[in-house]
Amino acid sequence: MKNLIRHLWREWLRPFALVLVVIAPLKSAVVDWNWVPSGSMKPTILEGDLVAVNKLAYDLKIPFTTRRLSTWGAPARGDIVVFFSPEDGTRLVKRTVGLPGDTIELRNDVLFVNGSPERYAAQDARPFHREVFEDPAPVIAIEQLGSRSHYVMALPGRAALRTFGPRVVPAGEYFMMGDSRDNSRDSRYFGPVPRRLIVGRATAVLLSFDPRRHLLPRPARLFHSLELPSSQG
């Protein structure tokens, strides 16, 4: 029995423990991933996407804690970030639309930042025809948020909070919204997100499995960037 235990420790348990000792702190403080279970970030992120999270984008934290050792940046307007909801602690993926001190307002799904409406360019929804949307006739546009462009989507057939604010974002907090504006529980409902609750910046789709098609893989989304190509901006 002792020989068996020693064999199991040497051949299986010790290598696994060593990997765990190395990987767990890296996952906690350097790089992570996040499964996306909902469509609140469509069409940028789909249900079943596994997104990479850069935990060093803004700071360095003590592994397994939210305590920062050093800070060298902050979320920029337009960043897609992973954070803990101030409402119930759930990890969420949303876009940063408001920085500390900004005044955020939504008028019939048009975003106003500091009193100025963001620019929009309507997009044909047909390139997204393979995706299943919550509304049979989604309205897709490219929103110019500061110097960056990204897709946004409206679902006219759904009851939604399309008008909000104006609200000033407090110091040290950030206003988050989903790209699918009519299908997202975000800062309109639970308020701005304190800086300490932000985990990191989402950068790309690592893997994707379609929950509506028995988790069939989506090969086209492998290592898919979350940034909109400049030619479309």
Structure description:
This protein has 233 residues and is mainly beta. It is built from two helices and 18 strands. It has helices at 2-29, 187-190; strands spanning 31-35, 49-54, 59-61, 68-71, 80-84, 91-98, 103-107, 110-113, 116-117, 119-123, 139-145, 148-154, 164-168, 173-177, 193-194, 198-210, 216-217, 224-225. Strands 1, 2, 5, 6, 14, 15, 16, 17 and 18 form a nine-stranded antiparallel sheet that branches. A four-stranded antiparallel sheet has the order 9-8-7-13, with no helix packed on it. The chain has a three-stranded antiparallel sheet with strand order 10-11-12, with no helix packed on it. Strand 8 and strand 9 (116-117) form a beta hairpin. Mean pLDDT is 84; it is low at 18-22 and 24-29.
The average pLDDT is: 84
Bin the strand percentage: 35-45%
Q: Report the uncertain regions.
A: 18-22, 24-29
Overall geometry: globular
Number of helices: 2
Q: What string gives the helices and strands in order?
A: HEEEEEEEEEEEEEEHEEEE
- Please report the distance between the alpha carbons of the first and last residues: 66 Å
**Cα gyration radius (Å):** 20 Å
Structural class of the secondary elements? mainly beta
Care to count the β-strands?
18
Helix share of residues?
Answer: 10-25%
